[in-house]
Design goal:
Layout lengths: L1 H23 L2 H22 L4 H24 L2 H29 L6 H24 L5 H24 L3 E3 L3 E5 H21 L9 H29 L14 H9 L2 H13 L1
Antiparallel strand pairs: 1-2
Length: 278
């Protein structure tokens, strides 16, 4: 109960701060905040990759250069160049989450090469940061980003409580013994209710969308969220740590809080980008 109370308090504080930043910060300030979050993620990924000393500092500096380079490109390049650059970043993320990570989890790879792990970290963190910037600017701004993030959080919370109450059949015992198929069913049920409520009461989303199609689509994002969650669990198990960090009481590190977002936000941004240019 103490752990649950700590989780709830931390989640409430984070939600208030996120909402304030999401709706009050100007675009440039929001982008800088996202860069700060990516840098914290890079710090935690260095730990999971067993990078230390000069290697960890160099990884942190290169991550910062990548993020600032993307911001500079958005500010100075033409719209076509921006579109193709963002597309390339999101396609890397799609390849990671749809091809590489499922194979990684099925085979149970143990990657000991620090440089390969560093590259994987960039493929996880950079598209997530870029998606947080792009989705905030996507109509209806900033509701689209909040909608996707809340969908993932609803799935995570529903899975947590359903798993605690009904969980018997392990989802991936060798990776994360606490996750169950009952939790996945709870996540599917939770996001179905969430999408139905948003579709019913929110004037910001197109009314011509068919509700059953929206609900079925939301199940795809649940699957992606589960993959992201399992992947971070596998990386932590490989590194021999329980949490990616100790930044957030009751939650561990930032990566522990956004693991499911890393596999969903970039692909959501990719789908919207493809819709825009089609």
């Amino acid at each position: 109960m103490r752990v649950l109370k700590s989780r709830l308090i931390t989640a409430a504080v984070l939600l208030v701060l996120l909402m304030a930043a999401l709706f009050m910060l100007p675009p440039f300030a929001w982008s800088l905040l996202v860069v700060v979050m990516v840098m914290q993620g890079a710090t935690e990924w260095s730990r999971l990759s067993v990078l230390s000393g000069l290697k960890a500092n160099l990884y942190w500096a290169l991550t910062l250069l990548i993020m600032l380079g993307l911001l500079w490109l958005d500010a100075s390049a033409g719209s076509a160049q921006q579109t193709y650059t963002h597309m390339a970043v999101y396609l890397v993320s799609a390849a990671l989450w749809l091809l590489v990570v499922p194979a990684w989890l099925i085979v149970g790879w143990k990657v000991g090469n620090q440089y390969l792990m560093a590259l994987v970290g960039w493929a996880v963190l950079v598209p997530t940061g870029l998606a947080m910037i792009d989705l905030r600017e996507t109509h209806p701004s900033p509701w689209m980003l909040l909608f996707v993030m809340c969908l993932v959080w609803v799935a995570d919370s529903a899975a947590y409580f359903a798993g605690r109450k009904f969980g018997k059949n392990k989802l991936a015992p060798s990776i994360s013994p606490g996750k169950t198929w009952e939790g996945v069913v709870g996540a599917v049920f939770g996001v179905s209710i969430y999408v139905t409520l948003v579709w019913t009461f929110s004037p910001e989303f197109p009314r011509m969308q068919v509700l059953p199609a929206l609900v079925l689509t939301s199940w795809w994002w649940v699957a992606l969220a589960v993959i992201g969650d399992l992947f971070e669990s596998a990386i932590k198990r490989q590194a021999g740590v329980k949490d990616s960090g100790a930044l957030l009481p009751g939650h561990g590190g930032l990566l522990d809080r956004i693991d499911a977002l890393t596999s969903t936000l970039p692909l959501a941004a990719l789908v919207l980008l493809l819709q825009r240019i089609s």
